[in-house]
Amino acid sequence: MSQIKKIPLTEAIGLPLAHDITEVNPEKGFKGRAFKKGHIINKNDLEKLAAIGKNEIFILDLDPDQTHEDDAAIMMAGAFAGRYVAHDLEPKEGKINFQAQKDGLLEIEVEKLLAINLLGDTSCTTKPTHLPVKKGEVVASTRIIPLFTRKQIIEQTLDIASPKGIIRIIPFTPKKAGVIVTGNEVYNGLIEDRFLPVIRRKLAQYQAEVHRSTLLPDNKDEMVASIKQFIAEGCEIIILTGGTSVDPNDVTPLAITEAGGRHFIRGVPLQPGNMFCMAWITHDSREIPVCAVPAAALFYPHTAFDVFLPRLLSGQQPDQTEVAALGHGGLCHFCQRCVYPVCSFGRG
156 with 225, same domain? Predict the structure, then answer.
């Protein structure tokens, strides 16, 4: 049976620590490791240990079927990290963090994550799936809750995570976009288009750029022709602006369908941006996303378009059920200072 012996601090000189010891100092704004597991306590350590409230230390003698928190964290980190995800080489305070190796879209195997956390002793915390992240950004952390656990628990954890891990990054890569600005009032010069600069800026966040743009009236046949032309030119995403209302004269959804759009999703349970539409057109064995951006994108810093854009650029095809689930958390907070995507909007 595993044994934990409590030793008075005054008798601890020459003994190894069984775990990292954490120091919390609000005055210095510090919380972190003060002593590392395995550290041999010497006379000079006694004052500091006492100052952080450690009047005894623990000596640990594990059974063969037990795993220490540090060893568990190392094994879990290796199993959890998928493509383009790095992790700390050694635990600190029993924890190991994961970092993105590239700018990209964070993808979490949510069901496997739940199964791992339901085991009880094991813990893995992540940022939300589908979140755009930067190279070097911490995206997840893992540890076990107790100081040690049964090896069987760790083996179950590794089995769940196999074979490809539960955390991965889909890197953003340069992509060409075709932008079709629609609207009779814009086409006839009655008002100035303000969509194109907004779309260009949002695409640039994910290494995409406007390959070509055009200005069209509310004419379905011209829209269909432009969609097909842009795809033939090699555009990897088509974005239409200016339509997607409840107005019967709005021909944008019809144009997308007639151009070959499949799996059409008209409207999403997100505000702002309820009228956002998307579909996919097959061309040369590629699935080209085509989306229509409502006017809300001109008035709000982030809308439904921002929720789906990084996913569309990463080759994902959200289905109707997944989109419907976004209604939970789909209402923007309309904060005075927008901090999206570090918020609940569009997270489901």
Answer: no
Do 145 and 212 sit in the same domain of this protein? no
Q: Is residue 292 included in any domain, yes or no?
A: yes
Residue percentage of the chain with pLDDT more than 70: 97
Per DSSP, 43 falls in state: G
Domain that holds residue 307: 175-325
If phi over 0 gives left and psi between -120 and 50 gives alpha, with beta otherwise, what is residue 8?
A: beta
CA separation for the pair 183, 167 (Å, rounded): 43
Question: What confidence tier does 28 reach under pLDDT thresholds 50, 70, 90?
Answer: confident
The owner of tokens 């070509």 is 212
List residues bridging with 33 in a β-sheet. Answer: 22
pLDDT in tens, 192-219: 889 999 999 999 999 999 999 999 999 9
Question: Where residue 141 sits, what CATH number does that domain have?
Answer: 3.90.1170.30
| Residue ending a domain, choose from 116, 142, 171 | 171
Q: What is the CATH number of the domain that holds 32?
A: 3.90.105.10
Answer whether 254's CB lies under 8 Å from 306's CB.
no
CA distances from 224 to 228, 238, 242 (A): 6, 11, 15
| 338: in domain | no
Tokens of 15: 């003994």
Q: Is 134 helix (H, G, I), strand (E, B) or coil?
A: coil
pLDDT band at 38 (very low <50, low <70, confident <90, very high): confident
The pLDDT of 120-148, averaged and rounded, is: 96
> Which residue's entry shows tokens 């107790």?
146
Shared domain check, 235 and 189? yes
Neighbours of 136 (CB within 10 A): 11
